[in-house]
């Protein structure tokens, strides 16, 4: 199939408790990506603040905002100014006592092209998201934009092949995972490597199984547990873009902020699916039990 090149950018950054500083970093990264020709720029999960889910604190709900709201206004203006499609992430206040971890896609004219509410919500040491976020209720539907159909999922979603598959089946041109994941500093080097390798393999597997490019954007830097109970988290960066056979197109370092732009050939997905016709050979007649919690 003929090439269909999309210039994709992403911003890998560190974050602090000062929202305006985080927003300034994101915007500076977006501008650099746009200067280098990016048509689409993706930001990491909850990029306007620290990853506050390391502990449970009701005061953190004050960080949440409406859609539309401050973030969609600020970043929508940047998308319009630069003429790019922008994938952002925020802590959404939907109603009193009802909050989501939500990705918002902004079109080139600054309008909201669509949203995705994180479906899979973890509750593990250092990742107490169930305290803050209600599971998404919008399903797995790509956001249609001027640069293609974006299968946007968020962080913990990246461990679930079902979400990636459903996005692909709904016509996504690529999968995008805004992410915040890191190591407990007390973990051994061996354990840290196992965790990071598993994270990489899972997402490259989604690329292979669905014949689609994958963009994964993670944060960097150490963020202490504000409660003083946990050990904090060292976010491992390593943002990457993989092609439809899982091949690395680019990999960022684990410890440095970086703004990346590269060419992604969306047309190659058709070529790959012709030689690896996984969708043709799916046994949809035998998959009924997949909707059960366990076994028969």
Automatic annotation (TrEMBL):
Q: Which UniProt keywords apply?
A: Hydrolase
SUPFAM superfamilies in the cross-refs: Carbon-nitrogen hydrolase (SSF56317)
Q: Does the keyword Hydrolase apply?
A: yes
CN hydrolase domain segment(s)? 6-266
Query: What domain of life?
Result: Bacteria
Query: What name has this protein been given in UniProt?
Result: Carbon-nitrogen hydrolase
Q: Which Gene3D superfamilies match?
A: Carbon-nitrogen hydrolase
Q: Name one GO molecular function term.
A: hydrolase activity
């Amino acid at each position: 199939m003929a090439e269909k090149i999309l210039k994709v950018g992403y911003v890998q950054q560190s974050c602090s408790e000062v929202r305006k500083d985080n927003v300034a970093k994101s915007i500076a990264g977006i501008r650099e990506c746009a200067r280098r020709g990016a048509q689409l720029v993706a930001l990491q999960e909850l990029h306007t603040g620290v990853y506050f889910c390391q502990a449970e604190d009701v005061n953190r709900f004050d960080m949440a905002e409406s859609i539309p709201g401050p973030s969609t206004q600020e970043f929508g203006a940047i998308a319009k100014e630069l003429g790019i499609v922008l994938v952002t992430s925020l802590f959404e206040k939907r109603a009193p006592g009802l909050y989501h971890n939500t990705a918002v896609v902004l079109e080139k004219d600054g309008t909201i092209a669509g949203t995705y509410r994180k479906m899979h919500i973890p509750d593990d040491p250092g990742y107490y998201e169930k305290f803050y976020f209600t599971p998404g209720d919008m399903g797995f539907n790509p956001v249609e934009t001027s640069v293609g159909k974006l299968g946007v999922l968020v962080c913990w979603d990246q461990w679930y092949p079902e979400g990636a598959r459903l996005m692909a089946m709904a016509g996504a041109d690529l999968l995008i995972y805004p992410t915040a994941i890191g190591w407990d500093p007390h973990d051994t080097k061996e354990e840290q490597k196992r965790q990071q390798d598993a994270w990489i393999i899972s997402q490259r597997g989604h690329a292979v199984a669905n014949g689609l490019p994958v963009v994964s954007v993670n944060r960097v830097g150490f963020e202490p547990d504000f409660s003083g109970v946990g050990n904090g988290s060292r976010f491992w960066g390593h943002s990457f873009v993989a092609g439809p056979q899982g091949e690395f197109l680019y990999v960022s370092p684990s410890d440095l902020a970086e703004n990346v732009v590269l060419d992604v050939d969306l047309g190659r997905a058709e070529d790959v699916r012709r030689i690896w016709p996984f969708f043709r050979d799916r046994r949809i007649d035998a998959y009924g039990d997949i909707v059960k919690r366990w076994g028969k």
